[in-house]
Automatic annotation (TrEMBL):
This is Engulfment and cell motility protein 3. It comes from Larimichthys crocea. The lineage of its organism: Eukaryota, Metazoa, Chordata, Craniata, Vertebrata. One of its GO terms (molecular function) is SH3 domain binding. It comes from the Eukaryota. Gene3D superfamilies: 6.10.250.810, Leucine-rich Repeat Variant, Pleckstrin-homology domain (PH domain)/Phosphotyrosine-binding domain (PTB).
Length: 715
């Protein structure tokens, strides 16, 4: 007796008969099941019958797919695929055009089933269809059914596309090229040509020779959306399959006729499923076009290439007005070049080509820099000269920034990645620019300089700035700007302050979505972590900091030191020499009792900022703070050496005064500590042995030859 899991309860239909409800034993041969069904209706010749699904895709039931049958399925008793294939094969050859038309129409329908397709192809039925196309003596309706059936048969991959004759290919191309042709024939013909192109390079060459780009573009300009879609699919197939030379010719054709813009404007009015399909083709067009930059991105700079060396020196000469270099000695010229390459922001100023050896972005970074210098010379000179003249460690290195920005743009635009089969995320701005990569770079390198200044960044903040710039670009592109000007306006409006606000909003939204127990845990952890930050701030004040004095003559050579006593009751301060890194507390002659401190002032509220009102730049204002003591008649004025020191000292002084810390550093550190602590608390440590003591620290290595020597780069 069969087990219950091998039994499936199904219904079987047949036109003109009552349905049979049976329990299908999955271990019984399918031929035996069909015989029992035929016996139930008194049908002779069970070998001439087969079962197929009655609903949805009406697939034949075979031994290989019978296990997919579920309880409650409705099946239908129908002709066996071999008998059906034989009948249709004969019907297609009938002298009666009506019979031929009906047979080909049914063929187009049943050919979607692989079991039937195998039977029909085994009788060389596909060759019969090829002959009908080559003879071209049939009506448009018969030809449409013929081509549809042929396409369905070939889609199963049973027969190779390369076996087709050149006569057949010319006929199919002729249907596409002909102007007064039936739309249904053109749709299927475009489908067939797409499959040919994607199947092999030899067929690509034949199709490219037979179908002109002009005629293909004409199909994109018709009102029939199905033909538009099929023509777009063939165009994408040609672009994807073409070699570099052919692809460049196609790009030149598209750009010359402004067809990218036309395609986009025409396609966005498509509707429904057609629009989804067109979105995929627009994505493919963008991907294939941008990927022509991949060879440059993968190629490192060749230090022995005179052309590439000339471009590097062209960047230098475009930025700096130098005396005639031909009159200089070799050593003098070499020294001058190294100095100017350093001002340009190259890490290896003696051999700047080494900066461009890394791939990606390789030579593409050199291309974008040169394009910016040639296309926007004023903006280029302003960027370089503005930063090369600064001596306060806040200069933004043009070359290093350009190389990293080019890499970021390559990642955002997915240059070098083959197009996905289901991708549809394209950038409308691509269809308004012939040189999207270069123009985006020109906008974004100026954005980078602006963001650098907004963040008051130094060389140590380089990675942080690049993260912000990446976020500015991705957020702006996600809004789908349709032109470069619109992108430029939006990305410049998204300044560093806006990025911080967006991050805070998203963080709050993320917190709102957290489970209540996690929120409760977060609130319980906050006091403990805030106390940890308070202690760190006080310890930092006890270590002390070197401050600079700014006199009315803007001299910055006087230094003084301030530190908190270990018992947190006194602030000790006094003038020091430049070579004293950490003076003992006994050498600091002046002191202020913490109990006498009345207030903490920052920025323009500080007395030493009010005295020089209008003379201080924003950078100094952001680093200034003062404490008032006694009866607020006296003040001790500070200018922090960095924003980090400003945050540490204002937080520490706030703790001494019994106030809440409010700096951005405190908020950032609290967020990091909370996130880390919550993750640790939520770790699943069940059955995980935790040692009682810390693991032994391994011995130092015998040498440090694996370390990179940065000093070599700076020479």
């Amino acid at each position: 007796m069969p087990q219950q899991k091998d039994i499936v309860k199904i219904a079987i239909q047949m036109p003109g008969a009552y349905p049979q409800l049976i329990q299908l034993d999955q271990k019984k041969p399918l031929s035996a099941v069909i015989k029992e069904v035929c016996d139930g209706w008194n049908l002779p010749g069970p070998d001439n019958y087969a079962l197929q699904y009655a609903d949805g895709v009406q697939t034949y039931i075979t031994e290989s797919n019978r296990l997919d049958i579920k309880n409650g399925c409705i099946l239908r008793l129908t002709k066996a695929p071999g008998r059906c294939a034989e009948d249709l094969y004969k019907g297609i050859q009938s002298s009666d055009s009506g019979v031929r038309c009906d047979s080909l129409k049914e063929l187009a329908s049943v050919s979607t089933d692989v079991t039937f397709a195998q039977e029909f192809i085994s009788r060389d039925g596909h060759l019969l269809l090829v002959k009908i196309v080559e003879d071209s003596n049939e009506s448009n309706m018969i030809m449409t059914h013929t081509l549809t059936g042929f396409m369905e048969l070939m889609d199963h991959g049973i027969v190779s596309w390369e076996n087709l004759s050149s006569v057949f290919i010319k006929k199919i191309a002729g249907f596409v090229n002909a102007k007064p042709t039936d739309a249904s024939i053109q749709q299927v013909s475009l489908d067939i040509l797409e499959s040919m192109v994607l199947s092999s390079h030899s067929l690509f060459l034949q199709v490219k020779q037979e179908v002109t780009m002009e005629r293909l573009i004409a199909h994109l300009q018709v009102t029939n959306q199905q033909i538009q879609t099929k023509a777009m699919a063939l165009l994408m197939a040609l672009l994807q399959t073409a070699g570099d030379s052919d692809r460049q010719d196609m790009f030149a054709f598209l750009n010359k006729r402004n067809l990218r813009q036309y395609i986009y404007k025409n396609i966005i009015h498509s509707s429904g499923s057609v629009q989804d399909e067109m979105a995929h083709y627009l994505y493919v067009l963008q991907s294939v076009t941008l990927n022509h930059l991949e060879p440059r991105m993968r190629t490192p700079l060749d230090c022995y290439s005179q052309e590439q060396r000339d471009i590097l020196h062209g960047l230098r000469q475009a930025a700096f007005e130098t005396e005639s270099e031909n009159s200089l000695s070799h050593e003098r010229r070499r020294s001058l070049c190294a100095k100017e390459f350093k001002k340009l922001g190259f890490s290896n100023n003696s051999n700047p080509g080494q900066d461009l050896v890394r791939t990606p972005p390789g030579l593409l970074a050199l291309d974008t820099m040169y394009y910016f210098a040639a296309r926007y010379p004023d903006a280029y000179s302003r960027f370089v000269l503005e930063n090369s003249s600064r001596e306060d460690k806040h200069e933004c290195p043009f070359a290093r920034s350009s190389i990293q920005l080019t890499l970021i743009l390559c990642e955002i635009l997915r240059i070098g990645e083959p197009p996905s089969e289901t991708g549809s995320d394209y950038h409308p701005i691509f269809f308004s620019q012939d040189r999207l990569m270069e123009e985006l770079f020109c906008v974004c390198i100026q954005l980078l300089n602006k963001t650098w200044k907004e963040m008051r960044a130094t060389q140590e903040d380089f990675d942080k700035v690049m993260q912000v710039v990446r976020e500015q670009i991705t957020r702006t592109l996600s809004s789908k700007p349709t032109s470069l000007e619109l992108f430029k306006n939006k990305v410049n409006a998204l300044n560093y302050s806006e990025i911080l606000k967006l991050r805070q909003t998203e963080r709050l939204h993320q917190e709102e979505t957290l489970a209540p127990p996690v929120l409760e845990l977060k609130e319980r952890l906050k006091p403990e972590l805030l106390e940890l930050i308070r202690q760190q701030r006080l310890n930092r004040l006890c270590q002390g900091t070197m401050f600079r004095k700014i006199s009315s003559r803007r001299r910055q050579d006087k230094l003084w030191y301030c530190r908190l006593s270990p018992n947190h009751k006194m602030l000790h301060y006094g003038d020091v020499e430049e070579d004293m890194d950490n003076p003992p507390i006994e050498t600091l002659q002046d002191k202020i009792p913490v109990a006498d401190i009345k207030g903490l002032l920052t920025g323009k509220d500080c007395p030493h900022m009010k005295e020089n009102k209008g003379k201080q730049n924003k950078e100094v204002l952001d680093l200034a703070f003062s404490i008032t003591y006694d009866v607020e008649e006296y003040s001790l004025n500070f200018i922090a050496p960095s924003r980090t020191d400003f945050c540490l000292w204002t937080d520490g002084l706030s703790v001494l005064l019994g106030r809440e810390m409010s700096s951005e550093s405190m908020r950032s550190e609290l967020e990091i500590l909370l996130s880390m602590e919550i993750k640790l608390r939520l770790l699943d440590l069940e059955n995980v042995p935790i040692p009682d003591c810390a693991p032994v620290v391994p011995k130092p290595p015998s040498n440090y030859n694996f370390c990179y020597d940065f000093s070599q780069t700076e020479q």
